[in-house]
TrEMBL record:
The chain crosses the membrane at residues 77-95, 107-128, 140-162, 168-186, 198-223, 229-248, 277-295, 307-329, 335-353, 373-392. This is Glycosyltransferase RgtA/B/C/D-like domain-containing protein. The lineage of its organism: Bacteria, Pseudomonadati, Planctomycetota, Planctomycetia, Isosphaerales. The keyword Transmembrane helix applies. Keywords: Membrane, Transmembrane, Transmembrane helix. The keyword Hydrolase does not apply.
Length: 532
């Protein structure tokens, strides 16, 4: 029997260790790539460039929130002030060095992710393992910690772990609030609720849509008639929301409330996000769902903990699916769900460990072998995909984990930077982190939220002035530099009469029609092409 028990424990450790090692391997490759010189020229997620730009505005003493309806820049700052303030403070020493501040911001995101998963591990090791002998608790805790690493740094979060956006920080603070409530709520419920409420308020201060874990915690407290706990959970967020709305003024409200409401709902986007969740997060999500019916057998978990986990799993899953209906939504709307999934996966590993001890007889082991074999195959396939990504197999079809920058790409961006300095004026540039690699003067035209905000606002006649297309038709920009993927803006510029310049392979460089008044600009452009 001892041999059977040892074998089962080894199996549980193995199915946790293998995907954790694969996840850490892919994270290391991604992080190294994001911090490499190529990382200055390529974004790690959609919306990262404009997020960095707004942090840099704050560091330079420029207004963070401006009316997004006003020309000529139509500036959007779509997230909450806590995100920008936190990143600006954390990267303050490097604010004047673009090459240093870009990787520093990405490391802040990685640190927040590590903080969130570390809090989850602390709960598992200090609270859920409290009734075991030190030796047994150590091995079970190791398995649970490995499962947390495999889940939290797995394919679903991917590049988001090292991108400059509010999603990781918001979800991490919400997850920490959940951990605090679960870990301390039994002994000092009101104090735990106050601390958890402060964490939930911090999460909202990063991203205003980060309310799903908070909703689950409040619903669980109300269901259990713990009304004082529910009130204490909501109080800090209510105070922060009121303060932000009152102090930050109408431009803040125009950005975080009005501008973010314009993107359309799309069932096609919902279907795409549901399939992405199944492909990149299917195994952990399935494991968390499988753990839910067995939480009643977890004698080491209080009834309030079980109710809170179930409620948060439901609110974050359903809420993530609803919010992912919006045009432009991505996997980031499932990040709150993922911190709940991490806790449930660790609980599931602990339940599996306990089941291995109680089912160590040869007959029970034989009956469990098919299920264990199926689980082992799924874990092996899951880890194998990460191994293939590390090896670079599949030419990116399995998901790229390296930022690929062609040798000539960087040279073209550097050449475009010199061109921008010589031409002067309000230059529209959107390559390599929206032109940050060009190091232009602030403020500068940024239309990264064109699909999410600018286009729907223009279509509904909500913008003041001519809008981006009107600016192009007026030839307001003496120079336009675009990435190859900026097809819609490129088409609009060409339709407005801008002329695409030859000699550029990775960027689209355009000038307005060249009457006599613009001859000097045209000469500079042609000279830049000859300097290649």
């Amino acid at each position: 029997m001892n041999r059977q028990l040892t074998g089962l424990r080894a199996f549980v450790l193995a199915i946790c260790l293998v995907p954790a090692a694969a996840a850490i391997g892919t994270l290391a490759v991604r992080t190294g790539s994001a911090l490499s010189p190529a990382g200055l020229y390529l974004a790690t997620s959609g919306g990262e460039p404009v997020s960095m730009y707004n942090v840099l505005k704050l560091q330079r003493g420029l207004p963070l929130y401006q009316d997004p309806r006003d020309p000529p820049f139509y500036p959007t700052t779509l997230y909450n002030a806590g995100f920008y303030a936190f990143y600006a403070a954390a990267t303050w020493p490097w604010r004047h060095d673009t090459a240093a501040v870009v990787p520093a911001m990405r490391l802040v995101s990685l640190g927040l992710q590590a903080l969130g998963v570390g809090a989850s591990m602390a709960l598992a090791l200090l609270a859920w393992n409290r009734r075991r002998s030190p030796r047994a608790a150590g091995w079970a805790g190791l398995a649970m910690a490995l499962a947390a690493v495999a889940t939290c740094f797995g394919p679903l979060l991917g590049w988001w772990t090292v991108t400059t956006r509010p999603d990781i920080g918001a979800a991490a603070f919400a997850g920490i609030g959940l951990v605090v409530m679960i870990g301390l709520g039994g002994r000092r419920p009101l104090a735990a609720a106050a601390i958890a409420g402060a964490c939930l308020a911090a999460a909202w201060s990063f991203k205003q849509s980060c309310v799903l874990i908070a909703g689950g915690m409040v619903l669980a407290a109300i269901w259990q008639r713990r009304y004082a706990v529910a009130a204490m959970l909501m109080l800090p967020s209510a105070l922060v929301v009121a303060a932000f709305l009152a102090i930050l003024g109408p431009d803040y409200r125009a950005n975080v409330l009005w501008a973010t409401s314009l993107s359309a709902f799309s069932l096609a986007n919902l279907a795409r996000m549901a399939s992405l969740l199944a492909v990149k997060g299917g195994l952990p999500l399935l494991a968390s769902a499988a753990a839910l019916p067995f939480l009643g057998r977890a004698g080491w978990m209080r009834r309030e903990e079980r109710a809170t986990l179930v409620a948060c799993w439901l609110t974050t899953l359903l809420g993530g699916l609803v919010t992912s209906c919006r045009t432009g939504s991505e996997a980031n709307y499932f990040f709150e769900l993922w911190f709940v999934v991490v806790l449930l996966v660790m609980a599931g590993v602990r339940l599996l460990w306990d089941a291995a001890e109680s089912a160590a007889s040869p007959a029970r082991v034989r009956r469990a072998r098919p299920a264990l074999a199926a689980l082992g195959l799924m874990v092996a396939a899951w880890a194998g995909l990460d191994a293939l990504r590390i090896a670079g197999v599949g030419d990116g079809r399995l998901g790229r984990i390296r930022l690929a920058l062609e040798p000539g790409h960087r040279a073209e961006v550097d050449r475009a930077a010199g061109l921008a300095r010589r031409v002067g004026g309000e230059i529209y540039c959107q390559p390599a982190l929206s032109g940050l690699a060009l190091d232009p003067p602030f403020p500068m035209p940024i239309f990264d939220d064109y699909v999410y905000f600018h286009r729907p606002a223009a279509e509904r006649g909500l913008l003041r002035g001519p809008g981006l297309r009107g600016l192009l038709e007026r030839h307001e920009f003496p120079l336009i530099v675009l990435e190859a993927r900026s097809e819609e803006i490129l088409a609009a510029a060409l339709a407005a009469g801008y002329v695409r310049q030859p000699g550029w392979s990775y960027l689209a460089v355009l000038e307005p029609p060249a009457p006599a008044a613009d001859a000097a600009v045209a000469a500079v452009m042609r000279g830049a092409g000859a300097d290649r």
